Amino acid sequence: MKAKKLVQSLCLNKKGEVDIDDGQRRGDRYGRELGVVYCDGINLNKELIENKLATIYSTYCDISEFSNEEWTKPHCH
After folding, report:
1. How many CB atoms lie within 10 A of CB 54?
2. Which of the four pLDDT bands, split at 50, 70 and 90, describes residue 26?
3. What is the Cα–Cα distance from 66 to 7, expressed in whole angstroms?
4. How far apart are CA 10 and CA 12, in angstroms?
């Protein structure tokens, strides 16, 4: 419920964009696209992780184009 409220507060009625992870273009094991979501320029992935409402699976850091970003480094290195 906290994650939903954070997403609503940052994204509801805002401009949304998705940056698909080029390193994981094939998607996950369920065929879903993976990437970073931005709401009015705010990195939603980063906000969810910093608020302990999401995690990064370090298993995929070696193929993710985002693994060297400041917000992913604590989880990928």
Report:
1. 14
2. confident
3. 20
4. 6
